[in-house]
Amino acid sequence: MKIVVIGGGASGLGAAGAAKGVDPSADIVNYTEFEDVAYSPCGIPFVHGREIESFDKLFLATKQQYADQGIDIHYTTTVESIDVKRHAIKVREEGEIGYDRLVLATGWNYSDPQIPGDHLEGIYRVKNIRRAMEWDKFIDTVKSAVVVECGPIAVEMVSALVHRGIKVTVVDPAPWPMAGVVDPDIIEPVRKSWADAGVVTLWGERVTAFGGQGALAYAETTAGRVEAQLAIIGTRKAPNTALARAAGVALGATGGIIVDSFMKTSASDVFAAGDCTEIPHGVTNVPLQGLSGSHAYAQGKAAGVNAAGGRREYQPVYVPWAMLAGDWMIGGVSFGETTAAAIGVKFVSGASNGITRARYYPGVRPITVKLLADPATRCLIGAQMVGGEGVKERADFLGMAVRSGISIDDLATMENVYSPAIGALNEPIAMAAQAVQQKLGRR
């Protein structure tokens, strides 16, 4: 069995490793356009911000380790086309390569904001680790930067640039950062911390052009000119599906590759995983694209197992997520009020303002938890949080709660750990659930 994997990110390496685990005799060949595989691009902003001392820390394994596992990785290689009928791919400088099973893990690209002048030196799309190493040296020369739309990676880069002593201006047509994901009340502490750090924010505005002689010197915006030697592109993730589209593999409403629960595509013996796919949401069944690295890795493992002849289903997603945003952690599950209202989901919400430790214990931080419940079933369907700590663990728990169909009444009477150093007497999740109960009426 020859299994070819296109893409060397979390989903691609997850697929390759899982396939080898199911069938150790399989010939696993991986093609990537980059110089490296299986590093953490999510860590790049934290190296730029000096929280992590070196880019070397982001590599998960050496090239030799993958070779020792029997995974044949072809670096800096371009796959030009796929012939799904003949079970073959065309590789630049290698020619035609046959396969028994194919896994597409081609990932994502930043959506193109189509701004004139984007050829100038100083336009940075945070993604590839080798380019990031070069950009890190360039950042040392920068005095002012502009962030073009404020997606998750851009939010992290705002903090990184502030840590480097750079004047930052955020320009975004949305009314607040990550507006498609986070509610305004949840992101408000982040906005305030940015203002306190001197970050200029231009909400409801757009960058219309980049200017300079060879190198970026300024950005023209609908609110006026912004001086900048660096521009961070923070637009949404767009699925990288050019190969799949050209091969006739079916794409969905998000532009991602349509897969079933076994990560099979519309083409025979072709699987797909990661940011190039779309996956149904567990509450709404609406397809989603561009999830987190943990989702990509799990999807890759499912695709690899099934490509090698095993059986593993990938379930609809409820998307627990969390991230560091300046001085705050933000996170959630499924969706918040803004998104729920936009897609027509009925909900009742309730929020609580709690603390992460006993009020007298050093390092205590505030935390806000907001819960959304289905008014008919009283089941939890979404959550959003902002706090100084403890957001990730609550997001994981609440993600499982939504998936399991736990009711708001169960959460209102949940047991919780009380220990002054790690948990307050009143759990904010229970308090938020009680706030929802007050609106729904107690059973």
Describe the structure.
With 443 residues, this protein is α/β, with parallel strands linked by helices. The chain is built from 12 helices and 26 strands. The strands form 7 sheets. A 5-stranded parallel sheet has the order 3-2-1-7-19. Strand 25 and strand 26 form a beta hairpin. Helix 1 packs parallel to helix 8. The longest helix has 15 residues.
Largest sheet, spatial ordering of strands: 3-2-1-7-19
Residue windows where pLDDT falls under 50 for at least 5 positions:
none
Strand fraction: 25-35%
In helices, the fraction of residues equals 25-40%
For the record, give the distance between the C-alpha atoms at the N and C termini, rounded to a whole number: 58 Å
Number of helices: 12
Radius of gyration: 23 Å
Q: Based on DSSP secondary structure assignment, what is the total number of beta strands? A: 26
Structural class: alpha/beta
Biggest sheet details: 5 strands, parallel
Task: Kindly report the average pLDDT value.
Answer: 96
Shape: globular
